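User: Can you predict the 3D structure for this chain?
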Amino acid sequence: MGGAFLEWALEAFSGYAAVDELYEGPYCVLSAVDNRQFKRVLYEVLDHDPTHDDIEAFLGRLKTALDDRELELKGLTTDGSALYPEPIRKVFGDVPHQLCTFHVIKDLTKGVLKAVAKERARLGKSKPKVKRGRPSSKEKEARRLARKSKDIQQKISDLFQNRYLFVKRRLKPSERKRLMQITRGLPICASCARSWITFTRCSTGAVGRRRRLASCRSCVSG
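Assistant: Here is the predicted structure, written as structure tokens:
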């Protein structure tokens, strides 16, 4: 990709680019796009998973194309892959590097729902084994275990039926109250709920967004 196409792609270059990788079977397509003009600037097809060397070489092509036209890169956006930070520093120095909010939200959503599912599975394993049928009034221990099993099953059902609340962008006051109720006594789920609420509040502001997004992600992965 070069010549007339590259001239067209960079004729009104905004100074901001997004770099991403797309996997198709055994192939990987690296692409660089003007993040304001939405024009593809460069791409490269690999027959293997990309390495730091591949990313560095690809970014080097982008830098050469910009330098040849005396254009400045003001910012670069990528997903959260560990492939990018080191090559970006090597090729572009301290150019501002931000994470794509779409990918952060996608990763957070996946992590939160996975954590909630694991908690449901843990609760399922903690249910006491009880005999079939209703225990008599004289079987105090059996009645206690039956109540405990029923309470745990209710928690499992609540988490499943209300799992969408953990990843909803804007919660109504009643929904937030419900979320706090069903996570009471479940530290992992409560942490997920707090992290998501914090994220949805912080993600609407631009100042310090990257740091706060990273903080929310660490809470979920932890």
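The chain has two domains: 3-99, 102-221. The radius of gyration is 25 Å.
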